[in-house]
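Request:
Um, any thoughts?
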Amino acid sequence: MSQIRQLDVPIYLNQKIVFDLVATINDGFTEVTRIKEAVSKEHSATGEVKSELGNKNIFAFLGINVSGRVSGTSNDEKVLEKVHTPSSLFNTLKHQLEEKQQVKKINCQNDFNSLKPGDFVEITGKIIKNSLVTLFDNMAQMMELATVLQDYSKGQKGKTEKAENKKIVGQIKAFSDSLKSAGMIDLICQTTNQYGFSTVMPVYMDYFFNGNMNEIVNGEFKVFGKLTNLCKDNKDSIDLLRNTSFTLLKKGVIENLIKDINLEKDFDIGKINTVIDGPALLMIPIAIYV
């Protein structure tokens, strides 16, 4: 019996990249097939098979509409249908790349220093959200809760306070949304092996299972992706504001804003990072999985 290879369960999967890579490796979607065999008892048979591939649902079965026609005499028809999900295609892709020794794994500083942009990389570590996004999301939720619980039985003064609070919540949400570019948000993976480094990963919210990233935050997962940049030491860094409008602001503006929030007696937000110092990687994540 052949040994079953390790099967990974993606929580985040950029299926568009997976489909493109599998199609490139296999010269088309040869992994998604309907195999139709017609055996003629008397004469040879001819067959036509038409298939249509759809990918409406991120983690659903791939929709395949197959119609077939076999002509001949006294035919016995045997049909075998093989249908892949995006997750099974990812496992197939990763296995093929590993067999070709195309996937780099970092266990020491030499492994890290040998990396170059364009490499396929697999890392393991604890995943956290961009702390600045988390700050403003949490502040907006707190203000909304305070608005609900506040006593507005004070006539006109109460109405004015309610309007002011709603305005503040709107401003905080606008600030948070401006940190998210086209449905993307930065996650940071902090490696837990013997050589520690951080990896910045811009992810699309739509590619999470059920559209919810809460399952992976503060958990330890594996990440597979394509390397775009690396900082080999702490002399270089990756800016977490690089894809936002805040890149237009002077460096100290955000830091001063965070200090002002920390000075408020009702808030204790701790340290907020706007850059990730090296050693660090910038990666296009294809999958986050266990």
